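step 3/5: co-fold with MIG
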Amino acid sequence: MGKYQEEKMKFGKMLSHKIENNIINIRFQEKAVFIKVLNSYIINFFVPLHREERNSKAVGNLKDDYYDFKVENITNGIQIITEKLVCKIYDEFKVDIYDKRGTLLCADYRGESKPFKRRYGDYMLAESEGHSLREESDYKVYVSKRMEEEMYFYGFGEKTGHLNKKGYHYVNWNTDNPKPHGETFDRLYKSIPFFVGLSKDNAFGIFFDNHFETHFDMGKDNSEYYYFAAVDGNLDYYFIYGPSVKNVIKGYTEITGKMPLPQIWTLGYQQCRWSYDSEERLMEIASTLREKEIPCDTLYLDIDYMDGYRVFTWDNEKFQNPEVMIKKLNNMGFKVVTIIDPGVKVDKGYKIYDEGLRKGYFATDKSGITYVNEVWPGDAVYPDFLNSKVRDWWSGNQKIMIDSGVSGIWNDMNEPASFRGPLPDDVMFNNDGITVNHKEAHNVYGHMMAKATYDGVKKATGKRPFVVTRACYAGTQKYSTVWTGDNQSTWEHLRMSIPMLMNLGLSGMAFCGTDVGGFGYDCTGELLSRWVQVGAFTPLFRNHSSMGTRDQEPWAFDKDTEEINKKYIKLRYKLIPYIYDMMWECSKNGAPLIRPLLFNYQSDKNTYEINDEFLCGDNILVAPVVEQGLKARSIYLPEGENWIDYWTKEEYKGGQYIIKKTPLDLCPIFIKGGTLIPVGQVQNYIGEKQSNSLTIEVYLSNDNSDTEYNHYVDDGESFKYELGEFNNYKIKVVNKEKIEIKIDLINYRYDDKYENIEFIVHNLNKKTLVINGETVEVINGKAFIANPAR
Ligand code: MIG
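step 4/5: write tokens
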């Protein structure tokens, strides 16, 4: 630690402690510390360095009634004992956390800070940057932990680079940087100050709830320690015990909120462009998709639909009657989503500006005068989303868009971005009576805008809101999906998107995606073909590209590219029932749809650094090609399972590397042996074909193990599921001499019940098939059961 922080972070000797409910209040010579035991595996450490109240933007209604812990005195300190953890606290507020078997999980670092050597000449070159731009003395909050043996780090939201973040330094300061995002970028649009540490099969998480500029150094400064730090604010962090990564994510999403169940159409394919800037062009896209039978649920309108970039308006020359146009599109099975930016055009006579100005709804400079910068509409002002009145106003305005027929809202530029230099530190916001400056407001600006949008869309539609945002903070998953901003049509960015999305998923942002095909720069047919093979498995599946780049719709290149796009978009539609099941699971336990292999196979260390394979839910492994021209690739199949090639149905033992040929139309996909995948019909849009039957593909295990699967059905749009109006089919497969399938409708509160279920059984090996107690005939691997559940 440098001199300066030593002062700031000085605690001194422990003097006393007292316990009030679930809070242990420790008095040190220099400071008071509050330790809250949230449950047997989550402990919060709070030191009010900046102000007394927490003012958390991430943490919602936490359950606060855990008292099942003990506090004991030990030499030079105390220890807190829960069912799962032993947390020892010493003088100088040093904290060491052990599991119940006495394994040390996470210990404060006691040594000196000792950055690896750098040697400079007389001047600095741009090329020699590669360290954080902050001097250590800029930190007012700083906690360093000892690097344990064999450590791996994950999470951190949307960061460039690889899956494992050990050895890197990242910054949270929401940033719109138009240069091609590369490994040297230490910050992007989102701030999620959370990570997972994994060492020797024990995982824990640390969530540092501080939305000033925060820094995470995971052993770049020196390999003996890692640290998290902030330029200001309180020390407020949560330790979340695993030992499984799964449990850490469950705990993290208990603190910051779960991704809510989305409307089912949002899981379809989405077509976007900057911009479909007239009714003709948009209708042309819509009819081409339908003519070519390329399934698609959603079309986007980028900034050019607005009248001079005035938010909540339409350009009535390009779109003469939006309501009529959107009705037409709705009848064709499309939903329309419109973009919106926070910047409000400075323009007397424009209702939104006048109203906001009159009511004092915009951020000001330090003397209270409305602050002006420049964005798309020219001079623009910034709604103060930290003020709940402003959020109510913004929420109410959503109705303008909803009334014209749009089904979802896309929030852009909410870092907030600005064309005339960054917002100065002293731009002021009114956090419901607490004045905060830009340094404190910046990283939660997009988060609060997303919240306002979510609330407004919910109120105006009564349905589950579909919101997309570019900037976010921890917990934004409660309000919005995210995309990873302006990537480029390069192989490097396709490669990077996989670890980036996996880490976003491990950071609570389970509903995420990248611009399929890449935003900036020109895409090629081959690149789009490979990108769609990844996109088909990511929750947000949207093709988008920038103004001026060449066309990037599935048919824009050649027949082969079009066919490959169609093949994978159709596969996506087939998998919708499975994907929806996984989203439902996620809404309860935080387990992301796209996740690294280690999430399910933590005991297999070979999975810890796989960047170019991922799991789509529990049962599907995807090993996409992310290199141009690659004719074959090696694939690691995790231990403890058998894996069945989705295309050929060949079976492989787990725990080995295999090589698969990868012609352009082939993305290697493996299904875990002993699993079920419910599949739907291929249709032009979700809900086009109404049907009372379901198909379930059964992939038998060859080790005779039993399988269980929960299949979820509801109306796909309303909040009635919260009242229990859904069906939950519990399907059990017992694989012995006979294959016995048993279907139980364990929750039947939704009217529509399947009349038939068709089973397609792979690897049956001539065994007898019994469903619900009746032996059934299997023809070409297929068997039917009528009235499957009562
Ligand atoms: O300054 O609205 O990331 O998806 O197409 C560019 C135009 C503004 C940035 C977004 C991009 C969007 C574009 N926007």
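step 5/5: annotate
The two ends are 66 Å apart (CA to CA).
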